[in-house]
TrEMBL record:
PANTHER family for the chain: LMO1763 PROTEIN, TRPR-LIKE PROTEIN YERC_YECD
UniProt name for this protein: TrpR protein YerC/YecD
Name of one Pfam family that matches: Trp_repressor
Superkingdom of origin organism: Bacteria
Organism: Selenomonas noxia F0398
Gene3D superfamilies the UniProt entry points to: TrpR-like
Matching NCBIfam families: yecD_yerC
Length: 105
């Protein structure tokens, strides 16, 4: 269940905007405008951490592969265990897949 404190007209507008995007390029364009590079990278890193936790990786593995802090990993784990199941929804749809190691293609 979504935290009702998050719901308001502005957040609804943001969600509708994201849902209106059709292509990867449109997503990049939108997120480049709405987020700083650091914010976008942080969100991407949290999704990757969630994917790795969901797959059963240890904190040490996640730190080594992503560079995420243990505080970030703990926060993501708390969301996976006690959150609104947003990460799980995306992960079960197979949207977040392991990154391809460019050296081992």
């Amino acid at each position: 269940m979504v935290n009702q404190k998050l719901r308001d007209d502005l957040t609804d507008q943001l969600c509708r905007a994201i849902l209106s995007l059709d292509t990867m390029e449109e997503c990049y364009q939108f997120f480049e405008d709405i987020c700083t590079v650091g914010e976008l990278r942080a969100m991407a890193q949290r999704l990757d951490v969630a994917r790795m936790l969901y797959a059963g990786n240890t904190y040490d593995d996640i730190v080594a592969r992503t560079g995420a802090s243990t505080a970030t990993i703990s926060r993501v784990k708390r969301c996976l265990n006690y959150g609104a199941d947003g990460y799980t929804l995306v992960l079960e749809k197979g949207i977040a897949a392991p990154l391809i190691d460019k050296e081992n293609r």
